[in-house]
Predict the structure.
Amino acid sequence: MFTDMQKWAEIRRRVLNDEISKRAACREYEIHWDTLEKILAYSEPPGYRLTEPRRSKVDPFLPVIQEILESDKKVHRKQRHTTQRIFERLRDEHGYDGGLTIVSSAVRKLKQQNKEVFFPLSHPPGEGQVDYGFADVWLNGELTKVALFVMTLPYSDAIFIQAFPRECTESFLEGHVRAFEFYGGVPTRISYDNSKVAVGKIVGHREREVTKEFLRLKSHFLYEDHFCLVRRPNEKGHVERLLDFARRSFLVPVPRVESLEELNAQLLHCCEKDLDRTLRGKSAAKRELLNEEQLCFLSIPTERFEARRLQTVHSNSLSLIRFDRNSYSVPTEYAHRSLTVIATVDEVRILCGDQLVAFHSRCWEKEQYFFDPIHYLGLLERKPGGFDHARPFEEWELPVCFGILRRRLETEQQGLGTKEFIKVLRLLERHSLSSLKSAVQHALEIGASSADAIRLILEYQQEPVIDLFCLDGRPHLKQVKVTQTNVSAYQSLLTSNPGGCSVS
């Protein structure tokens, strides 16, 4: 049994090869003369054809819709017209009496026609792109949003990704340092968006006033920067695409980790494993292309770059400075002073001039207080009543022997024991807790409990051990003979003196 296309081809073959006439074909196949003429004119059925274009109720309003869509490009995306709103305006303002469905179809077609088209970009070896993204992770049992620093190399398609608590200067700089170490070199040119971490001010079409810390990064690693035009992320579309890939591939399902260090170790392993993939259109695996690309890299300077942020702060009457929404203690002698904070992703160092006066681990939460009890010992000696009530000492866990020493001092010295105990604690300003603990334990064993006695024990324990003098390699010293001293000669000094008066 013939299908329509088989019948169509059979009629054409027989008629055009003069096997049968047209009239015979119409009789045999029971078709109209006009149908036969169409079959002979087309090698395949042409399908349904309109004699004139169909007209829709929305056609007269297409210029209005186009004008609305063009005006939407100049406003914030959250205040642009929805299809429903366009329909309402056509109905209320322009007298449209059709339905919503054909308006939706017209809007969809116009948007598709107006979509921007881009050039495929060439990516020579040695160029990189940087971007930030965000993802959720289960961090120590709590669902937490982390910032993802991503650097990609379009030529080899290599990706490097690390998670940080927040997008900020410290994480931006630290991300670069880790990426350069992972790639084994520094790209000659890196593309960025206009993040405030790097760009202080946009002063022209391509001109940028970059931040001081970004200049320091560039000056150290000597690469060239490139900033995308505003709202033109397609200029670094490679990193945008790979960021989405990494989020779906490396962070699904949502990781459960105890710390960011554990998460970053997992991400680093994923980046390393991803280098074994071969992409469509590439001649080799990513790892081989990266090895080729490394020949174009700049070398990493031998002097390590410190990924840090500097900030001038002022310590208050509680001997606290405020940095990044948290408060950190400094020694009380530096209260009411201007100090400098050097912050990295892991630590906070506080300086007075060139002198380091305090060190704390970095906290990424907010409105937290961090006290070092040793910072307040000088003040505590002047105000001993605060020892049991001051906030810096509330959670200070000292070894058990310190509690025994305090009770013994308070018992023996009748009201002055607390002051004497504070003098012992002040030894922590110059010695470690483990060294002082050993000295206190020894003092308790021999029954010496004063601060001076513990200080002497501590100093004695830390004195270097004097080894016996070795004569090996010194043959000239082996010939020297030292006679034994006769100590009985000194006995006369205890019984008489030159003046004839006996010594009692």
In short: Residues 59-113 form one domain. The chain has 18 helices and 15 strands.
